[in-house]
Amino acid sequence: MEPLRRLRATWWCGAFYLLLSVAGAHAQTSPAPAVPVNVPNFWNVERRLERPDAAQLPTTIRFLTTDDFPPFNFLAADGALMGFNLDLARAICAELSATCSIQAVPFAALLPDIEENKGDAAIAGLAATPAARQRADFTERYLGTPARFVARRGSVPAEVTPGKVADRTVAVVGGTSHEAYLRDFFKEAGIRPYPDAAAAREALRKGEVDLLFGDGISLSLWLNGTGSEGCCVFAGGPFTESRYFGDGLAVAVKPGNAALRRAIDYALQRVWEKGVYADLYLRWFPIGFY
Predict the structure, then answer these.
(1) 189-245 pLDDT, tens digit each
(2) Within a 13 Å sphere around the CA of 151, how many CA atoms are in the beta-carbon half?
(3) Model's pTM, two decimal places?
(4) 3-class secondary structure for 109-174?
(5) Is the bond into 52 cis (omega within 30 degrees of 0)?
(6) How far apart are CA 15 and CA 218, in angstroms?
(7) Which of 122, 151, 160, 268 could form a disulfide linkage to 252, CB 3.0–4.6 angstroms apart?
């Protein structure tokens, strides 16, 4: 199973904790985190993208998303669509002076609906995999899906390198790209596979292992929620090797719609430069995963 699909499958494990911690995040910025958060940057500031010609763009951009992928896109208690992707789509529309239309559809319908012109763009945790590129064109990525180590407070290693982790036990979900990465690069560590993310997290929380290695996004939600009981923190930095952890998330448009694809790329860079992207990232990910 590719990393992003596995990431979607683990989301429900942390959704309850997420909704408790960010229930009011859409309206207000979350309180400042206890430690500094590194906001990722996927845009080359030296590469100046050309402002798109408004005459070549639709006056309303029809974004497609899903409602089952918190904190990216999900239904609030009142039935309203909300999430990081929703806010980012609105910021893109604002930058392009376009009206924003956002509709939720099943994940499996995203690319078919784009192909059938039922929407202009899809922003819903899509990865620009080779198979997906045969059905849609993609913007540059707006978010990565890095892997991270987590340790119990009070026992965080000064460095997280193969040598420093060689005498530590590490929990990981068995059969995943995260386990494969450990066995390729941290083979001297005491790798302990678990059947699912909940079991691996519980092993760390109880002190049955020294470290946990997994998807940084879902781990950040766990650390920020009540399920972790404040036991643990990130250790070391992010691991971003695309061969194991994917190329990240991007916006999909209909094949051949280069004008809209370039316009969204332009808008994403401007959203970053103006600090809007950082505000959204800190709002939805108060414990960052980079």
Answers:
(1) 999 999 999 999 999 999 999 999 999 999 999 999 999 999 999 999 999 999 999
(2) 15
(3) 0.85
(4) HHHHHHHCCCCCEECCCCECCHHHHCCCEECCCCECCCEEEEEECCCCCCCCCHHHHCCCEEEEEC
(5) no
(6) 9
(7) 122
